[in-house]
Specification:
The complex is a heterotrimer.
Chain A (H helix, E strand, L loop, with lengths): L26 H4 E17 L5 E8 L5 E8 L2 H6 L12 E9 L5 E8 L5 E3 L12
Parallel strand pairs in A: 3-5
Antiparallel strand pairs in A: 1-2, 1-4, 2-3, 4-5, 5-6
Chain B lengths: L1 H6 L42 E4 L15 E3 L9 H12 L1 H4 L20 E5 L3 E6 L5 E5 L15 E7 L2 E7 L19 E10 L2 E9 L8 E9 L12 H11 L3
Parallel strand pairs in B: 5-6
Antiparallel strand pairs in B: 1-3, 1-10, 2-10, 3-4, 4-5, 6-7, 7-8, 8-9, 9-10
Chain C lengths: L73 E4 L27 E3 L9 H13 L24 E4 L4 E6 L5 E5 L17 E7 L2 E7 L19 E10 L2 E9 L8 E9 L18 H8 L10
Classes of the chains: A mainly beta, B alpha+beta, C mainly beta.
């Protein structure tokens, strides 16, 4: 997974009109922003790491086969500022992850948001791959 | 220590005639029974600012550093029986497993015990400690009274308040990834550290830390050590860029 | 069927629950409620976004410290940097991953770095072949002027006699004494952030930096400098929310003449904002993947 450091404005309010359009270096190379996707699965764990956190969840196909998916998300401080906590998701909980599929066809995606089992929706990365507050 | 020499050719500290960075306090020098009175910052805090460093590499092995562990009195870290096996195995595999050998963040109190100085800066709302060791910094928040919830850090989350002229820092929200020394002393994510910084003279700072972790230790334990100020004129901390040095070494090996 | 499900096989889909969504404009509605409150609460300290509230009132004058100098302390970001974080010079060609931008160079007027032929070659080689060597990918500090437009913002602390800058990104630190002291390090000592000394000229803090190493880039596109670079910065507060920042680079080995960048630093207005720990090396798996996947070097980003 090639991922250069994401670019500004995570956690910085930037309500000002001057907020620049800054794009994640590798987003366009790795993810197809014209191909949004939403997947339901069973939460396994999260890696709270820089430069990007990862949400790991098991997805069961029609054939019963279980695939471990990885959804790339904001770095830890960005998640925290969006209200994420280490215990926000419980192992085994059904989550719905929305984002963009990786171009390489693997079970990988960029995640824009996650809906928890209790229905709470949590922002996890800007829908266009950019970082910063949601539009 | 040798790496520091690569980065710096500064000669040894100049003679004692070098002026201290801070003005001498108005009150008498410390003597028997008389406590040193530190100068004040503009907003009235005891002034702890300056560049400080320990001597004699206590971070090699806390239990072997003479006089470092002051509680318990026997100078030994009070491991729970179940925790001792892990400490022993850590120590045996230290070269490969010491997180510091991977250039990871040292944690607290280890980061204050390295053979690299740090510089304390004080403002009315925060005290910021800048470390030569991989340009780490710790912000001690004087105006926040609750630890952050639901996130952990390598160096924890630091809340500070004053007890007289002693800065007391309550550190929580640790992960379980750091060691206390090269000899494999370790902790869990239940670690809490309470630090105390007291200036005991123009060029000395007494640093104490009480370590609590009910998952690893049967009781809290405490260290106490004197830090010395860098009194060279125009002193500054330098850079110890562990990852860069590792990369350069790997290049030389032809990787 | 394949097209409709974006080329995925049925086997990878959750049972009956794939939805086809446009990029979610509604995502913003569901961010944590309310601005952060005293004493914690759902957002906690330093968390949450005040999002899209009423516009800010006009900025008042900047404050001063007890010694009468402008008080530059607080949380800042360099959001309006013309895309300098991607490429500091003018970059009119869109590339995958970043849009065209004017860069941050105001002199020379063409907005381009006045390279010597040798250093122009090095910069091109970086861009074409060595993007995996970007220092930030290895968790190095960014040097100058790059550090000033790095992401996630920074804080300025202004205790007596110093300006201290702490970046969340890479936990980079710059310590600038402001008492007009001379440089004191031997020429052989080379630092990522150099040796900075500052002095006030009226309400402008002038910072002079020498002893830089040559291990940093000017941006993410591979633009470079030598270890002879000397940087003079000028921090001039405009009002309580803006500092005008200017930096001039001169480096006879790398450039045929000095060049200057200029952009504003804007105050982060989020209440209870804090810089948080950023562990880089500890989590940095991506460097290895990046290097493995590109066989040790990165090609230019291709569509």
């Amino acid at each position: 997974m090639r991922a250069k450091f994401a670019i500004p404005a995570v956690g910085v309010t930037l309500l000002l009109a001057a907020e620049p359009v800054v794009a994640h270096h590798s987003f366009a190379a790795e993810y197809d922003s014209t191909k949004p996707i939403t997947i339901k699965g069973s939460f396994v764990k999260m890696d709270w790491v820089n430069p990007h956190s990862w949400i790991r969840f098991n997805v069961t196909g029609d054939d019963g086969k279980v695939t471990l998916w990885s959804a790339e998300a904001l770095p830890p401080n960005g998640l925290y500022r969006q209200g994420w906590r280490k215990d926000s998701l419980k192992e085994g909980e059904e989550i719905t992850v929305t984002g963009f599929r990786a171009k390489d066809g693997t079970a990988t995606m960029w995640s824009s948001s996650v809906v928890r089992a209790d229905g709470k929706k949590m922002f996890s990365g800007r829908a266009d791959g950019e970082e910063g507050p949601p539009r | 220590m040798t790496f520091r020499l690569i980065l710096s050719t500064i000669p040894a500290a100049v003679a004692a005639a070098a002026l201290a960075v801070m003005p001498a306090p108005a009150s008498a020098q410390s003597s028997k029974g008389q406590q040193y009175k530190a100068p004040r910052t503009p907003d009235g805090q005891a002034d702890l600012q300056g560049i400080w460093e320990v001597r004699n590499s206590p971070d090699k092995d806390l239990e072997k550093a003479k006089g470092l562990i002051v509680e318990p009195k026997n100078g030994k870290i009070p491991y729970l029986p179940a925790a001792l096996a892990r400490k022993t195995s850590n120590e045996k595999n230290s070269a490969a497993e010491d997180p510091l050998n991977k250039c990871y963040m040292p944690g607290v109190p280890r980061i204050n015990l390295l053979s690299h100085p740090f510089q304390i800066f004080q403002t009315p709302t925060q005290i910021s400690i800048a470390y030569e060791y991989i340009h780490n910094f710790r912000n001690v928040y004087l105006k926040r009274d609750k630890h952050l919830d639901g996130i952990d850090f390598w160096q924890g989350d630091s809340l500070g308040h004053w007890e007289g002229d002693t800065l007391v820092v309550d550190v929580a929200n640790f992960n379980d990834q750091t060691w206390f020394d090269k000899a494999g002393a370790y902790h869990s994510d239940q670690l809490k550290v309470v630090e105390r910084y007291t200036r005991t003279g123009p060029d000395t700072l007494q640093y104490e830390a009480t370590i609590t972790d009910p998952k690893v230790f049967s009781a809290p334990w405490k260290i106490s050590i004197t830090l010395d100020r860098d009194t060279k004129p125009n002193a500054r901390i330098l850079e110890y860029e562990c990852q860069y040095l590792a990369d350069e070494a790997a290049k030389k090996k032809g990787n | 069927m394949r097209k409709g499900f974006l080329g995925m096989t049925a086997g990878t889909l959750a049972v009956g629950t794939i939805l086809f969504l446009k990029p979610a404009p509604a995502a913003g509605q569901d961010t944590p409620p309310g601005p952060p409150r005293e004493g914690g609460g759902r957002g906690g300290r330093g968390a949450g976004f005040g999002r899209g509230r009423s516009p800010l009132p006009p900025a008042g004058p900047f404050k001063r410290t007890a010694d009468g100098k402008p008080d530059l302390s607080g949380y800042w970001n360099a959001a309006n940097n013309g895309g300098a974080v991607f490429e500091v010079q003018k970059h009119p060609v869109a590339r995958p991953g970043y849009p065209p931008g004017p860069g941050a160079i105001v002199d020379p007027p063409d907005g381009l770095i006045p390279y010597t032929p040798e250093y122009a070659k090095r910069a091109k080689a970086n861009f074409d072949e060595h993007l995996a060597d970007e220092p930030e990918l290895h968790c190095y500090e960014s040097g100058l002027p790059n550090q000033m437009y790095r992401q996630f913002g920074f804080q300025i602390l202004q205790p007596a006699g110093y300006l201290v800058m702490n970046w969340e990104f890479m936990h980079a630190v710059r310590i600038i004494p402001t008492d007009n002291r001379p440089h004191g390090l031997p020429a052989s000592t080379r630092l990522f952030e150099g040796d900075s000394v500052g002095r006030w000229e009226g309400d402008t803090l002038v910072v002079d930096t020498t002893n830089l190493n040559d291990r940093t880039w000017l941006d993410s596109a591979g633009n470079v400098h030598s270890d002879q670079m000397h940087v003079v910065e000028r921090f001039t507060p405009v009002d309580e929310r803006t500092i005008n920042y200017e930096a001039s680079m001169d480096d006879p080995k790398a450039y045929t003449r000095p060049w200057t960048v200029k952009f504003p630093l804007s105050r982060n207005m989020q209440p209870n904002y804090e810089i948080m720990e950023f562990a880089c090396i500890e989590g940095n798996q991506d460097v290895h993947h990046y290097i493995e996947e590109t066989g040790g070097k990165a090609k230019a980003v291709i569509p």
